[in-house]
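Quarterly update from the structural biology core.
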Amino acid sequence: MSSSISIPVNLYSQLGFQELAQEQINTYYAAFRFWHFLLHQAAHNDDHGRITASAQRPYTITELKQFCGIVNDHNIKSLSQLLIKVGLLYENENQALYIADWEQFCPGAVSANVKESTETRTSKAKQLAAPSKGPKSPKLKHPATSVEREKAQKIIAELAQISGKSFPQAERYEDYVIAWLQVGYRPEQFKQVSLAKTTEWGNQIEMRKFVRPQTLFGPKFINYVNDIVPEQPVTVVHHVEPVSATEIIKAIYLDCDRDLNETFRHMKVEDIAITKEEMAVIVDGI
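Predicted structure, tokenized:
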């Protein structure tokens, strides 16, 4: 049974989509379109965002090709790697492919159709467990990407610089920072908290010891952010609407490995009204 998909209103303002929007327009559109195919496949599988056929083996380009409509193997590979890099997809321990932060798209999905090992189910349960009432240490929604890890290290280094303190590895709590990044908090918000609490506590002997990642970026981080800047209504930034029909056609043409007939077939799927002759003029010279 397929799951129903609910697209959150702030989808395009989330960190992964903001990073994706920094790519060239053809790359962005192709990646966004590819991600939508994968999202619907995950809903069809109804297994906590799992895209591929099995949670027990690595995903393959051939498998993705079957339901994404892209014929070029290199394009599929590069788009998959890009979406993993910006945190919109992730791989489990077996390199099976998943939609990141699945519960925001399918909040009612709590069971899987495919039987898995006890170890795999336990691992997923830890990732998908909803936070209990009261302060609780932030948990990673999916394994940290190299980009997220690098951002966390910069944020903690910035706190050390602001506070004039040093934090050994055991006191860095990078996973706390990454967990907040994964739910949409921005690096500048960590800096605001670091500045505010260093100013407030830095000269108090009994409080200065709490200017540290464990405290500032732990369970009360949300409170510290809200103390500085009250939450405002989210402004939805939709990066797809401004794309012209011409650019869309060019992107699909590249996805189809410059095959006019295959591109024209996709025009019908995308419900773009155009003749084959008009399309040939647009893609001429690409």
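The chain has three domains: 11-128, 146-228, 245-283.
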